């Protein structure tokens, strides 16, 4: 009654909501994927037209219990989260377990996702990161969530100040591609090797200050890409 | 952030922020728990740094998207859905969706990722509440005397890698021993002020000291300075007084 996983995974780059229809094979049926999308959060007329907006819309739909949307998110993210865990040195089965755990968390926490504040990929990344820290280091990752701020709650960027998902995603990709090899290296070691700055400096045999300045320059490019300076 | 931006803000906003590199390390998840806690408390005070963190996490998302997918071999979507069914009341998803109240954009339900707090702790920044039991804020903590004018509450015992986090309560005019750092030391001010060779720090400010920094913090206002101090390696005290105190301070 359920489509074999392999058939879903072959569409990992983005199963077309209208044709492949993994949801059609799911028990219980589901809401139309776009039904729960807040139009203000997704100004693109056709969310299916670009992958980032579609993932974001699917995540919003999952908050309303849409299993077809969850199936699409699973097909897209589970293999990437597994790849992330493998990069961080976890054995295959463990990486696979954590990919599943991450997706279960995505299901449970979907109502906390705010499409105006983050791309779906960024949100899924934070869940995978926290699980990885929990498992690999037996530590917590202390965080502040947006609804528990001490003060100045209105100082952050307003929803309508933010670029829509697909533009943000495109610009992020551009910024990532524009990093120098040295900058990209310290970024990847930070995200994928669980190395703090002194360990990165040691591995690359460069001064600590060089690691920090490369990260600062990399962030300047990301910030410029995500900024609304051209609006 | 430039000085001009900082001074244009109301005085209650922090003036000293984590570096971009530190926020990348926090967002990437490569800081120890104590250091992450210090950064999280700063984030609770600082909308600008929350914006930078959102950028770091967007970068994390872009990196995740770029990874070549590693197909799952043993666990499948159907296995995951079966686990969902086992763990949740097996309601028909369509019914569940209809019964759910309409989804509002803001505010989100105040039931975040962390477990609900067992006790209300009014004066503690929320990231700290998971680490200390107190119903009366900072004053209600079990402060232990450490040295003349210095009291302490341990938040995280030293880990195998040498990291540690504690709250220090430093009486006005008290100077901590002059010290250098084996690794990174973050000092997050919760109340009062302190000064060192690098500047003056007040509530919400985060001071970042690494292997190249040697400093001697002094509590320099009329009230106690309470700060969270997190390290990822033992400090190196340099003065005679400091060497004498190190076994007691345990930083």
In short:
The complex is a heterodimer of chains A (231) and B (251). Chain A has 231 residues and is mainly α.
Please provide a written account of the structure.
- The complex is a heterodimer of chains A (231) and B (251).
- Chain A folds into two domains: 1-142, Rna Polymerase Sigma Factor, Chain: A (Orthogonal Bundle); 179-231, Orthogonal Bundle (Arc Repressor Mutant, subunit A).
- In chain A, helix 3 (67-87) packs across helix 5 (120-137) and helix 8 (197-204) crosses helix 9.
- Chain A is 55% helix and 0% strand.
- The longest helix of chain A has 21 residues, at 67-87.
- Chain A is mainly α and 231 residues long.
- Chain B is an alpha+beta fold and 251 residues long.
- Chain B has one domain (14-65, 120-251): Jelly Rolls (Sandwich), CATH 2.60.120.
- In chain B, the strands form three sheets. Chain B has a six-stranded antiparallel sheet with strand order 1-2-3-10-5-8.
- In chain B, a hairpin with a 2-residue loop joins strand 1 (144-147) and strand 2 (150-156).
- Chain B is elongated and about 65 Å long.
- The chains are: A mainly alpha (231), B alpha+beta (251).
- At the A-B interface, helix 1, helix 3, helix 4, helix 5 and helix 6 of A face helix 2, helix 3, helix 4, helix 5 and helix 6 of B.
- Chain B: InterPro entries: Anti-sigma_ChrR (IPR012807), Anti_sigma_zinc_sf (IPR041916), ChrR-like_cupin_dom (IPR025979), RmlC-like_jellyroll (IPR014710), RmlC_Cupin_sf (IPR011051).
- Chain B: Pfam families: Cupin_7.
- Chain B: Residues 139-231 form the ChrR-like cupin domain.
- Chain B: This is Cupin domain-containing protein.
């Amino acid at each position: 009654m359920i489509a074999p996983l392999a058939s879903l995974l072959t569409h990992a780059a983005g199963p077309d909501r209208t044709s492949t229809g993994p949801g059609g094979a799911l028990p219980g049926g589901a809401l139309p994927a776009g039904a729960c999308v807040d139009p203000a959060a997704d100004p693109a007329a056709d969310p299916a037209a670009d992958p980032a907006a579609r993932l974001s819309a699917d995540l919003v739909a999952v908050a309303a219990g849409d299993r077809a949307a969850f199936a699409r998110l699973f097909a897209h993210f589970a293999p990437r989260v597994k790849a992330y865990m493998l990069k961080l040195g976890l054995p295959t089965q463990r990486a696979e377990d954590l990919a599943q755990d991450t997706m279960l968390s995505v299901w449970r926490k979907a109502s906390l996702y705010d499409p105006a504040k983050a791309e779906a990929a960024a949100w899924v990344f934070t869940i995978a990161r926290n699980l990885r820290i929990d498992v690999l280091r037996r530590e917590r990752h202390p965080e502040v969530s947006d609804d528990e701020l001490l003060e100045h709650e209105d100082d952050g960027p307003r929803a309508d100040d933010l670029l829509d998902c697909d533009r943000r995603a495109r610009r992020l990709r551009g910024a990532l591609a524009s990093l120098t090899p040295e900058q990209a290296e310290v970024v990847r070691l930070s995200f994928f090797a669980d190395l703090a700055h002194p360990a990165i400096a040691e591995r690359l045999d460069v001064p600590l200050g060089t690691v920090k300045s490369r990260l600062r320059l990399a962030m300047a490019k990301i910030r410029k890409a995500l900024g609304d300076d051209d609006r | 952030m430039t000085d001009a931006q900082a001074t244009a803000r109301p005085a209650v906003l922090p003036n000293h922020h984590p570096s971009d590199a530190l926020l990348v390390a926090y967002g990437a998840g490569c800081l120890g728990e104590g250091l992450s806690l210090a950064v999280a408390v700063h984030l609770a005070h600082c909308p600008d740094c929350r914006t930078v963190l959102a950028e770091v996490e967007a970068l994390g998302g872009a990196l995740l998207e770029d990874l070549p997918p590693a197909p799952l071999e043993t666990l499948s979507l159907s296995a995951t859905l079966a686990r969902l069914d086992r763990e949740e009341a097996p309601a028909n998803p369509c019914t569940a969706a209809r019964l759910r109240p309409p989804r509002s954009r803001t505010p989100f339900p105040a039931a975040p990722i962390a477990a609900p707090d067992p006790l209300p702790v009014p004066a503690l920044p929320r990231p700290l509440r998971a680490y200390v039991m107190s119903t009366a804020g900072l004053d209600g903590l079990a402060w232990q005397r450490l040295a003349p004018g210095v009291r302490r509450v341990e938040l995280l015992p030293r880990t195998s890698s040498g990291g540690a986090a504690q709250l220090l309560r430093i009486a006005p005019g008290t100077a901590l021993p002059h010290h250098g750092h084996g690794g990174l030391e973050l000092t997050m001010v919760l109340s009062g002020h302190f000064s060192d060779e690098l500047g003056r720090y007040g509530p919400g400010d985060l001071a970042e000291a690494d292997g190249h920094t040697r400093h001697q913090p002094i509590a320099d206002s009329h009230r106690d300075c309470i700060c969270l101090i997190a390290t990822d390696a033992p400090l190196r005290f340099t003065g005679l007084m400091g060497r004498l105190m190190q076994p007691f301070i345990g930083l």
